[in-house]
UniProtKB/TrEMBL annotation:
This is Glycosyltransferase. It comes from Algoriphagus marincola. The chain crosses the membrane at residues 6-25, 286-309, 315-335. Pfam families: Glycos_transf_2 (PF00535). Signal peptide: none annotated. Its EC number is 2.4.-.-. The lineage of its organism: Bacteria, Pseudomonadati, Bacteroidota, Cytophagia, Cytophagales.
Length: 377
């Protein structure tokens, strides 16, 4: 009976995993960009950045933004209660870049959260209707970022376009894990968006219309949440008809990754805490992957132990073959997707990171859901 149960767990886990790895993730894995031969309008774009004590990052980012190959854009930085030299830096940069504008936030009302308040003030005064969001610690991957990320909104009558936001590759195990987890998360939300069922996006690379934001009073029911200015906005208002995923590697942004586990866990607690506010059907999109992943590993380990004790070596060979097949398929899917999104080789340590995802989702996830000390900055 125990052996049968283990085979059922293992088989069910494999079955659901194959659905995710091939048909669902295939939308990203097998994506081929089509040449755009249609004439485009060059509607104005405002790049919006909320910044709190980001002197060092803004000094790097702003000059790169003004190297973008797009004829009609400006940059708006919301200086949110900064206590460093951010204000002085922005004054100096505005003298160099006439299309750079700033809004200064001196305080945040008690009933709202800081980043949403800063973004709302900035978006209200944005010059253009097409808003392209990123963070101060990001840089565009190419000079085509504005052009390609905003194309669905400018030329295809979309309300939202969601893109990939990766991290700089550095040495060390933490960075390899960050690369793996970021790619896995992107496969989930970008694949479902390509299947016309979007459920989240990331504010490091997100485009929408100011008019829509103002019309729906976008954060009206989210003020009390520390986070959710990006993924909850998409979760509530994005549909298959008004949203497009942009998979071009030139349209991605690259962020500075955390360099120690304490800072990383603090960041992920904030991200995972927001997930409990997703719509039920969208929780299931993530949950079925995680559940089948748990079934696969539980079934595999249980079968290896049980069959070894019973000395059923032929069945062990079958389990190992299925286990290896799934691992190779996972590595291949991640490699293909990573080349599409990052233009780079596959993250290393796929087997180890895939196993560690159990702890990430089933331990850090519940802890994050119960956390009360979530802060932006």
């Amino acid at each position: 009976m125990a052996l049968l149960l283990l085979w059922i767990l293992f088989g069910l886990g494999i079955f659901i995993q194959l659905i995710y790895l091939l048909p669902i993730f295939g939308k990203v894995t097998f994506f081929k960009a089509k040449p755009n031969n249609n004439s485009e309008n060059t509607e104005g774009v405002t790049v919006v950045i909320a910044a709190h004590n980001e002197f060092k990052n803004l000094k790097r980012l702003i000059p790169q933004l003004f190297e973008q190959d797009y004829p009609n854009f400006d940059v708006l930085v919301i200086n949110d209660r900064s206590r460093d030299r951010t204000g002085r830096l922005l004054e100096d940069l505005m003298s160099q870049y006439p299309k750079l504008r700033t809004v200064t936030v001196k305080y945040t009302p008690d009933h709202v959260t800081s980043k949403k308040y800063a973004l709302t003030l900035g978006i209200k005064v944005a010059k253009n209707d097409v808003i392209l969001l990123t963070d101060a610690d990001c840089i565009p991957a190419s000079d085509q970022w504005i052009h390609k990320m905003t194309r669905p909104v400018r030329n295809q009558n979309m309300t939202f376009s969601i893109g990939y936001a990766g991290y700089e590759q550095q040495k060390g195990f933490l960075n390899r894990w960050i690369q793996f987890e970021t790619l896995k998360t992107a496969l989930l939300y970008l694949s479902f968006a390509k299947w016309k069922s979007p459920f989240m996006g990331v504010g490091r690379n997100l485009c929408y219309r100011r008019s829509f934001f103002m019309e729906i009073k976008a954060f009206k029911d989210l003020w009390h949440l520390e986070g959710g200015d990006d993924d909850l906005l998409i979760n509530r208002y994005a549909t298959g008809k008004n949203t497009r995923a942009v998979l071009d590697a030139d349209a991605r942004t690259i962020s500075i990754p955390k360099e120690n586990w304490k800072d990383y866990f603090s960041q992920k607690k904030r991200h995972l805490n927001i997930g409990k506010h997703y719509l039920t059907q969208d929780k299931l999109k993530i949950g079925w992957y995680a559940f089948s992943h748990l079934l696969f590993w539980t079934g595999a380990i249980g079968l290896f132990i049980y069959l070894a004790l019973e000395q059923k070596w032929e069945q062990i060979a079958i389990v190992f073959g299925i286990f290896l097949m799934r691992l190779l398929l996972l590595a291949w899917v991640f490699s293909k997707a990573n080349r599409n999104l990052n233009g780079q080789k596959n993250p290393s340590n796929t087997l180890i990171n895939d196993f560690l995802y159990l702890g990430y989702f089933w331990i850090l996830g519940p802890i994050s859901h119960q956390s009360k000390d979530i802060k932006w900055n």
